[in-house]
Amino acid sequence: MEPRECLRPLLERRSVRVYQDREVPLETILEILRVARWAPSARNQQPWEFVVVRDRSTLQKLSRIHIGARPLELAKAAVVVLCDKEKAPVTYQVDCANAAMYIMLAAYCMGVGTVWINSLRNTDEVREIVGAPENMVPVAIISMGYPAESPEAKPRRPLEDMVHLERFGNRLR
Description:
By secondary structure, the chain is an alpha+beta fold. The protein has one domain: NADH Oxidase, CATH 3.40.109. The protein is built from five helices and four strands; from the N terminus they run ααβαβαβαβ. It has a four-stranded antiparallel β-sheet, with helices on both faces. Helix 2 (26-36) packs across helix 4 (92-109). The relative contact order is 0.21.
């Protein structure tokens, strides 16, 4: 594969909040999760569990956890990314953030739109909605559906504003 071609999903993926009235097949979601299993984790602990949500009433409950969760209202599916804080007490949030990113990239490659819904400030509520035990931390909810919008890329900071060579303060010029 051409290196530039490999980078396309990383550069073209956008957060999609508006979806077509079309179901995402379970097999498509499972294929996305097969890819997510390959996300990196510290010591290869793989401390994640995935709850696939397609039930309309559960999606509605999740959509009400905070204002940023509203895309779940019309989503055709969601994946709650749970992380076992006992299995990876130091790295669980980063490990599961990696898995969430793999979900979003795999979904993009399969034509499914996603948006990351922060669930860290509503962990008890999300755990209760999906029936997860206390040791499982809902790091993210990934809202899913076939895109009914094509969001434009938002501006990014220039590399010169964020890259330091060898030591902080030695800016890229």
